[in-house]
């Protein structure tokens, strides 16, 4: 027999699961009719984008200059019952268009907490990480965290984020308090020695929280090609030394170009290995250090690979609270935090040397 309390909890859990699935389906349906176009340089972008909308029966949704690629990105919705693949093929052949692609959804790669004390256990860090943390704190290392929003009033995050910028909402400076971004940021930069809560891995790093993802339901973060492109372009503009991508999605041509450009300019990019076979971005890019949690995923990646703690990590969550989290998202944040200390100590380290050092620190076998 199921007691009434247990029944209520089961029904509440089922309702939350159904709401989450509905939110994801709604978001996916919203981008099924969207295309993103990169305009060729040299033309009047406003005139060109309007002409393309007229010529291909498209509804303009947004336009953004991508400084890293010296071009404008335009987001359109198809009108009527047009075939998206056919429209994309015609756009790609248009002399006014540099590239055209479908808009993809990407998902943050971590699991939200259950009950506050469900997974209560001692957080452990490898001995080498604990030793390293006594030698540095990430000072003067700029980190771009591209994620969902952050609880900027959390006592362990007050004053710890240099800038929070919103690429999803209409107001770029209004940031909602969301689970995933708060948890990822806390692992990296939570206050040290304030007598409250936890100790971030790199508490003196310069973190820029770039909200390119949103949460239709608690912990379920979704990002689009369009918002991620803007955030990546901004991360390049501020010359972030580390870019943390605790997310995964399908291969994305425009986002790939931006990640490659960031790496070319000296950024070290950490990306979460996706939990589904089709979630190949960003770890399909050779310049990305692919991160997974303690259990091996078996996914092949072309670049550097790192296995670090990602199970039951204690971190900050909205409402001034703390909880345990698991998933490759949080393993990626762990790697970014440790890397910030290393770059403080050895600023000239490149991604290959950094990955080799991280593997030794976490006792990973060297790749064959």
Question: Can you characterise this structure?
Answer:
This protein starts with a helix and ends in a 7-residue tail after the last helix. The chain has two domains: 74 residues, 2-Layer Sandwich (Alpha-Beta Plaits), CATH 3.30.70; 255 residues, Peptidase S8/S53 domain (Rossmann fold, 3-Layer(aba) Sandwich). The protein has nine helices and 17 strands. β9 and β10 form a beta hairpin. With 368 residues, the protein is α/β, with parallel strands linked by helices. The N terminus is likely disordered. α5 runs parallel beside α8 and α6 runs parallel beside α7. It is 33% helix and 24% strand. The strands form four sheets. The protein has a seven-stranded parallel β-sheet, with helices on both faces. It has a four-stranded antiparallel β-sheet with strand order 2-3-1-4, with helices on both faces. A four-stranded antiparallel β-sheet has the order 9-10-5-12.
What Rg is obtained from the alpha carbons, in whole angstroms?
A: 21 Å
Q: Give the tally of β-strands.
A: 17
Structural class of the helix and strand makeup?
alpha/beta
Report strand order across the widest sheet.
Answer: 7-8-6-11-13-14-15
* Range of strand content: 15-25%
Question: Class of the largest domain in CATH?
Answer: Alpha Beta
CATH topology of the largest domain: Rossmann fold
Instruction: Please identify which CATH superfamily of the largest domain we are dealing with.
Output: Peptidase S8/S53 domain
- Can you tell me the number of structural domains? 2
List unreliable stretches of 5+ residues: 1-29, 114-124
Number of helices: 9
């Amino acid at each position: 027999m199921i007691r009434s309390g247990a029944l209520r909890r089961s029904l509440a859990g089922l309702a939350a699961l159904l709401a989450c699935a509905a939110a994801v389906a709604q978001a996916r349906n919203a981008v099924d009719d969207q295309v993103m176009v990169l305009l060729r340089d040299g033309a009047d972008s406003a005139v060109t984008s309007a002409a393309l909308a007229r010529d291909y029966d498209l509804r303009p949704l947004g336009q953004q200059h991508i400084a890293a690629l010296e071009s404008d990105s335009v987001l359109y919705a198809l009108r009527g019952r047009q075939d998206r693949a056919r429209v994309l093929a015609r756009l790609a052949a248009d002399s006014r268009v540099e590239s055209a692609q479908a808009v993809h959804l990407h998902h943050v790669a971590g699991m939200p907490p259950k009950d506050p004390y469900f997974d209560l256990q001692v957080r452990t860090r490898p001995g080498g990480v604990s030793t390293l943390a006594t030698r540095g704190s990430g000072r003067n290392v700029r980190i771009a965290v591209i994620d969902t929003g952050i609880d900027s009033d959390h006592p362990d995050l007050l004053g710890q984020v240099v800038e929070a910028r919103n690429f999803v909402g209409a107001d770029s400076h209004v940031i909602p308090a969301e689970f995933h971004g708060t948890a990822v940021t806390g692992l990296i930069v939570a206050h040290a020695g304030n007598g409250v809560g936890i100790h971030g891995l790199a508490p003196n790093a310069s973190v820029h929280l770039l909200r390119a993802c949103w949460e239709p339901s608690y912990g379920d973060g979704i990002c689009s090609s369009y918002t991620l492109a803007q955030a990546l372009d901004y991360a390049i503009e501020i010359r972030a030394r580390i870019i943390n991508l605790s997310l995964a999605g399908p291969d994305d041509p425009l986002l790939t170009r931006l990640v490659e450009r960031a790496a070319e300019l000296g950024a070290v990019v950490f990306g979460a290995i996706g939990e589904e076979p089709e979630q190949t971005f960003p770890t399909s890019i050779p310049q990305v250090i692919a991160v997974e949690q303690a259990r091996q995923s078996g996914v092949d990646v072309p670049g550097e690979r790192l296995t670090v703690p990602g199970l039951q990590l204690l971190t900050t969550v909205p409402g001034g609270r703390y909880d345990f989290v698991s998933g490759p998202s949080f393993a990626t944040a762990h790697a970014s935090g440790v890397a910030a200390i290393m770059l403080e100590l050895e600023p000239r380290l490149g991604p290959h040397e950094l990955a080799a050092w991280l593997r030794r620190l976490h006792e990973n076998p060297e790749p064959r």
